[in-house]
From TrEMBL:
Pfam families: ABC_trans_CmpB (PF06541)
InterPro entries from the UniProt entry: CmpB_TMEM229 (IPR010540)
Protein name as catalogued: Membrane protein
Recorded superkingdom: Bacteria
Coiled-coil stretches noted in the UniProt entry, renumbered to this chain: 166-270
Transmembrane feature ranges: 6-25, 37-58, 64-88, 109-128, 143-167
Amino acid sequence: MLVAANLILSFCIYSFLGWLCETVYCSLPKGELVNRGFLSGPFCPVYGFGALLVVYLLRPFARLPVLLFLAAVVLTSALEYATGYLLERLFHTKWWDYSKRALNLHGRVCLRNSLLFGLMASFVVLLLDPAVQRLLLRLPEIFSLLLAAAMVCYFVADTVGTVRGILSLQEHLEKLEALREEIREKTRRYHEEFEQNILERREELAESRQERREQMQARIDALTRQLSGMRLSSRHIHRRLLRAFPGMRSQRHQGGLEQMREALEELRCQRRENQK
């Protein structure tokens, strides 16, 4: 039991450290805190899994630093690629995109990140993991067991909440896309009917044409207001995910996603103006 508990706690430590590195790396250029995590809490599980894989698979190479580094580059790149692929298939969304970076593979991995992950993995195997294991061995056994159980419950709850938030984001984007399509269709029909009335019945339908025009315009205005409201009505987790993954692209509802990004940018600009 203690071995399993220490494994869980190691996963939590590495998930937190991964989240911390990602958050600092992404927050400094923007000058604001960005919760750079898939989950709502301060953890990036992919770093936890990655660190454990690196430690247990690459420990035999600890005495060969160059070979350790090369193996770490391959292993962490494979993990990042597989994670990106699975997330795209599960949620029909591309969470990060390295397509503009040199030597990338399908936008899911790139050489720069792979080299950085290789260095980090080597550091974990050679220096960090031994220190983490010494720390965990100093904890009382009952404390380790209770803390591990609590962390499992936390991760399950956070994962369920995050997945539900992502699914609701997809639903929100679908509604936005449907509204945009309806506006386009209403506008197209409005122009078609207007042109047809001009050609077929100029005088006798002038009054009804005007009434029809006003009705159609009112419907378009109402849809536009509804669209504007939906752009601003996203849940907190939607806004957090958009800030955390600025390169996110929806495979089905990219138009709705861009609408939400524009709305969030407008809100940020308004807040900056209010603070002046």
